[in-house]
Amino acid sequence: MLNLRFQALGLMKRNNWYPVENGKCVIEIKVVSIEQLFDKRDPNPFRIKDLDDDVVEYILSCAHEIGPKKIGKLRIVTNDVLSDSSSSTVETAVREFFTYRADITSKAIHATFNLGFKTLLIGLLFLSSSLFLSSILSKSIDDTYFKTFLKEGLLLVGWVSMWKPINIFLYEWWPLIDSRNYFKVLSDIDIDIEFSNIQNEKKLSELKFG
After folding, report:
1. Which pTM does this prediction carry?
2. 71 HSE (CA, 13 A, CB side)
3. Separation CA 187–CA 93 (nearest Å)
4. What is the per-residue pLDDT across 104-149, written as a single tens digit (0 to 9) for each?
């Protein structure tokens, strides 16, 4: 795991963990080197490089605590002294990463709804077939117990076939919408890169916020 030092500044109350500027909260990340922001496994240059998983998880957790309408700025504090062009490259890389994630999530939403409509059609056809077959068999079988068993069994199986589309349309799509909204906010966020003499690195697992 990368050695990162992240810090959310603020007071003791949960909603005051983050600095506030112009009425909106600032997400602050402290890293010894700017390279720690990016995934070392990605060979691409910074401009198109993926962010490190721990960095993404931290930014998103802060964003969810703050809320999309209260996110004002991302401040990166580092030991590295960057030129204006280098700072601009890093800022662009961060925004483009979240733009890419928003695009991927939009495609996932589209795929989820496509699957939902397909499974809904299949479920309705299967349910209709089950009800029709149940009606036919109930008229052709004299044994009351066996007739009830088949009728109730076919009805149960028919409704079970509707579980997948119901699950998609009730539960699966809205977390994706929520994620996409946060990615869109972060893709357009103001970013400041500041120099600071950070002496001690801490592993992410050792961090304490607040």
Report:
1. 0.76
2. 25
3. 10
4. 999 999 999 999 999 999 999 998 988 888 788 777 776 677 767 7
Residue at token pair 């994620």: 179
pLDDT tens per residue, range 150-202: 777 888 888 888 999 999 999 999 999 999 999 999 999 999 998 876 554 44
Burial label, 73 (beta-carbon count in 10 A; 0-12, 13-18, 19+): middle
pLDDT at 2: 44
**Cα distance between residue 134 and residue 64, in whole Å:** 49
Q: What is the SS3 string spanning 39-90? A: CCCCCCCHHHCCECHHHHHHHHHHHHHHCCCCEEEEEEEECCCCCHHHHHHH
Contact 96, 88 (CB under 8 A): no
What residue type is 124 in one-letter code?
A: L
Q: H/E element holding 110? A: helix 84-140
**Tens of pLDDT, residues 92-106:** 999 999 999 999 999
Q: What are phi and psi of 27, to 5 degrees?
A: -90, 125
